[in-house]
Specification:
29% helix; 4 helices; five-stranded mixed sheet; Leucine-rich repeat, LRR (right-handed beta-alpha superhelix); alpha/beta; binds 2-acetamido-2-deoxy-beta-D-glucopyranose
Length: 157
């Protein structure tokens, strides 16, 4: 009983500590996405769009451009990522592993990016994902059938 109370208190403290903005692993995950996007071609447009995504522990990633978090006060998980219309030069791959830190993600917009295919973990382990927008890319015919089957649980726009 007493241990249970202590554990609850500890969990409460952790929740309170984390209540100030986004979760650390999600902040790091976003920075990995940023460096991947910039590695595909350091276009000025991309740098400007992701300018608010800074390597600073006290920066709340929930207020970063193109990011939306749940507004539950105790745990601010990233719920929406609007990563459309970036990297317009050349063609490249979606790295699915980059999205695995975002377990509360509801909506992922990767449209209009000239993506040609998929590498890394696929995103079916994102249990809450409801909207996956892959529109205006060059994915058709290049994604293997089994991955497409995983996609059908999502609303593909
Ligand atoms: C980090 O972010 C905090 C809060 O936004 C800000 O006050 C501080 O100046 C930033 N530090 C650096 C080194 O940019
Ligand atoms: C926060 O959540 C409430 C209840 O779900 C919703 O009505 C409100 O619009 C949300 N606010 C923001 C800024 O997302
Ligand atoms: C894909 O993302 C993962 C996680 O950040 C990384 O470890 C891996 O090197 C990336 N793969 C490529 C080909 O960029």
């Amino acid at each position: 009983m007493r241990l249970g109370v202590i554990v609850s208190l500890l969990l409460y403290c952790v929740a309170v500590l984390e209540s100030d903005g986004c979760l650390e692993n999600e902040r790091i995950g976003l920075l990995q996405i940023k460096s991947y996007i910039l590695s595909l071609g350091r276009e000025e447009w991309n740098e400007l769009e992701l300018d608010s995504w800074v390597e600073n522990r006290s920066s709340d990633c929930c207020v970063w451009n193109r990011v939306k978090c749940s507004n539950i006060s105790t745990q601010q998980h990233v719920t929406h990522l609007f990563l459309d219309s970036l990297n317009s030069r050349g063609s490249h791959l979606i790295n699915g592993s980059l999205y695995s830190p975002f377990q509360e993600l509801l909506s992922l917009d990767l449209s209009n990016n000239d993506y040609e295919g998929w590498i890394g973990k696929d995103i079916k382990n994102l249990q809450r994902l409801k909207v996956l927008d892959l529109g205006s890319n060059n994915l058709y015919g290049s994604i293997e059938g089994n991955i497409i089957q995983d996609y059908v649980k999502f609303k593909i726009l």
